[in-house]
Amino acid sequence: MRDQESRNFVGEDDDGENRTGTVMTATSHIITAVIGSGVLSLAWAMAQLGWVAGPAVLVAFSFITYYMATLLIDCNRSPGPQSGKRNPTYMHVVRAHLGGAKVQLCGLAQYASIVGTAIGYTITASISMVAVERATCFHKEGHDHTKCKINNYPYMIGFGIVQLVLSQIPNFHKLSWLSIVAAIMSFAYSTIGLGLSLARIISSGKHQPKSTLTGVEVGVDVTGADKVWQTFQAIGNIAFSYAFSLVLVEIQNTIKSPPPPENKVMKKASLYGVSVTTLFYALCGLLGYAAFGNKAPGNFLTGFGFYEPYWLVAFANICIAVHLIGAYQVYCQPLFGFIENYSSNRWSESKFISQEYNIGGGFNINMFRLVWRTVFVVLATLIAMIIPFFNDVLGLLGATVFYPLTVYFPIEMHIAQRKIPKFSAKWMWLKILSFSCLVVSLVAAAGSIQGIAKNVTKVKPFHAT
C-alpha cells in the first residue's frame, strides 16, 4: 500500500523499508496516544481515591506502563531463524515469540480494544463539541442548565463524518503531521485545564471545596456500595489514561534504523512520552481535585465546574475535539492495515480488494478500503450513540486494554525471549506482577460494568442531556 514512486532508496532501513521516524515523531505519536480523553477524568478519579491513594495509583501505573513498554520494545525483532527481522504489528511480535493460540488471543484483545477506543473517542469528542456550544449558552443565559440542554448526537455524527474522510489515508506512515497537530492540541487543553483549576483554587481563598485523604465520603457524598464501585471505576479511568501499548509496535515500526537501533530510540521516546504525560496527569488530577474537591465532575472541562472565561473553556474543548480526531486515526490505522493486508493475501485476485485507482493529486482510492473503513466508522458511531457514558466507558476500556496488552503479553514474551527459568526469582517476580495487574483489571472492569448497567436504564436515546 506504500507509494512505491516516492520511495527514497538512499534512506532504506535494513529490511528495505524507507522509514523517517525519529525520537521526536515517536514521542509525539505516544503523547497523542496517551494524553487523550483519559486526562479529563483524572480529577474525578482523584476525588474517588483521595489524596493518598490517588497519586499512588497514578505513579504506579506510570512505572508499570513504562517498564512494560521497554519489554515490548525489545521484543520487536524476531528470534530464531528470522533473527533480527522487524515485526510490523503487535500480533506479529506475539507470533514470533509465543505463537499458537496466544496470537489469536492477542489479536482479539488488540482489535477489540481499538474498536472500544474508537467508540470512547466518539463519545468524548461529541461531549467536548457540545461543551463549546453550552459555554456560549451559559455566558448568555446564566448558569441555568435547563436553558442549555443540547443534543450531542448531531456532533457524534459530525465527528464520524470527519473520520470517514481521514480514514481513507492509506497507512500509518502518512500520519506524522496529524499526530503532531494532535499532540499540540493535547498540551493546549491540558494547560488550559491546569490554568483554570489553579485560578479556581486561588479565587476560592479560604473557602476551598472539601477534599479528604480517602476521597468521597460514605454517608456524605456517596453510599458505601457506590464508594466501592466508583473506586474500582476510578482505577479503570487511570488505567485507560495510560493505554498506548496496543499501538506501540506500530509506532516503533515508523522509526528509521540503524544507527542508532530503533529499540533505543523507542525507549527514549517512551520515557519522554510517559514522563511528560505523568507530569500533566498529576497536575491535572491533583489541581482538578483541589479545585472541585469531592464534587469533582466526571469530565473537568465539560462538566461545567468552569463557566468563565467562556471563550477559553470553549477553546479548550475545541482543542480536545481536534486532538481526538488525530488520536482516533493513530489507534485505528493498525486495525485498518491488518484487515486489508489479510484480505489482500486471502483474495489476492480480487480487483475489488487490490485495485488502486488514481483520482489525482497523488491520491489513490481502493474500493475495499473505502467500504470497509466506512462501515467501521459508522458502526463505532452508532454504538457510541447508544451508550454515551463517559467515565463508565473509559473505565471499561482501561480495564480491558491494560492487562492483556500492557502487562500479560510483554511479560510472557520477555520470559520467552530471555529464556528465564521457571520458578527463578525473576520469573516469580514477573508472574506476581502479572497476577496483581490482572486483579486490578478485573475490579476496574467490574466497577465500570456496574456503572454502565446503572446508567443504561436512565438513557433516552437521541434526547438532549
UniProtKB/TrEMBL annotation:
Keywords: Amino-acid transport, Cell membrane, Membrane, Symport, Transmembrane, Transmembrane helix, Transport. The keyword Membrane applies. GO terms for biological process: amino acid transport. One of its GO terms (molecular function) is symporter activity. Residues 19-452 form the Amino acid transporter transmembrane domain. It is found in: Cell membrane. The keyword Transport applies. GO terms for cellular component: plasma membrane. It holds the Pfam family Aa_trans. Residues 1-21 are annotated as: Disordered. Its main location: membrane. The chain crosses the membrane at residues 20-42, 49-69, 108-132, 153-169, 175-199, 271-290, 310-331, 370-387, 393-411, 432-453. Belongs to the amino acid/polyamine transporter 2 family. Amino acid/auxin permease (AAAP) (TC 2.A.18.2) subfamily. This is Amino acid transporter transmembrane domain-containing protein. The lineage of its organism: Eukaryota, Viridiplantae, Streptophyta, Embryophyta, Tracheophyta.
